[in-house]
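Re: that backbone. Tokens:
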């Protein structure tokens, strides 16, 4: 009985925590950033007017490798209605380019060698994805690999 009381008390305390269901920044303007790598300069504000799927990944991340094909396919299906911005963090230039070639990545990608954009969003791992609506408001945070081609995800993105 004492053990059950302790478990129930712990559950009551934890139920007040909303970090899992409502992460910080949701409903707020997405933090803007500009990243310059040897190939391009990308600024988040350039995509205002379109929903953005902001994906943080790394070449050595197994779940990122698993997720990338569905992210690429979702971008193909959605066309110009959604912008996928895949930001590589914690990789060297050669690791980044090897990954792009090996996995046939034809998304808008940029390498953030200083992790400044990931720090702005408070990422804790990879892959970590933020969905930003056309007005620049952060709507969702997704941690871990996703099936971006699921009908639920495609329909959700269409609503933005």
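Recovered sequence:
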């Amino acid at each position: 009985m004492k053990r059950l009381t302790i478990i129930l008390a712990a559950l009551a305390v934890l139920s007040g925590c909303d970090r899992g269901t409502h992460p910080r920044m949701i409903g707020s303007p997405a933090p803007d950033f500009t990243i310059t790598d040897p190939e391009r300069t990308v600024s988040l504000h350039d995509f205002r007017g379109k929903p953005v799927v902001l994906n943080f990944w790394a070449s050595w991340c197994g779940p990122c490798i698993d997720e990338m094909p569905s992210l690429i396919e979702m971008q193909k299906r959605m066309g110009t209605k959604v912008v996928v911005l895949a930001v590589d963090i914690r990789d060297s230039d050669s690791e980044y380019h090897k990954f792009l070639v090996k996995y046939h990545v034809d998304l808008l990608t940029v390498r953030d060698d200083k992790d400044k954009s990931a720090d702005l969003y408070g990422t804790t791992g990879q892959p970590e994805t933020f969905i930003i609506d056309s007005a620049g408001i952060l709507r969702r945070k997704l941690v871990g690999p996703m099936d971006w081609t699921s009908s639920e995800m495609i329909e959700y993105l269409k609503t933005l």
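Confidence is low (pLDDT under 50) at residues 2-21. DSSP finds five helices and seven strands in the chain.
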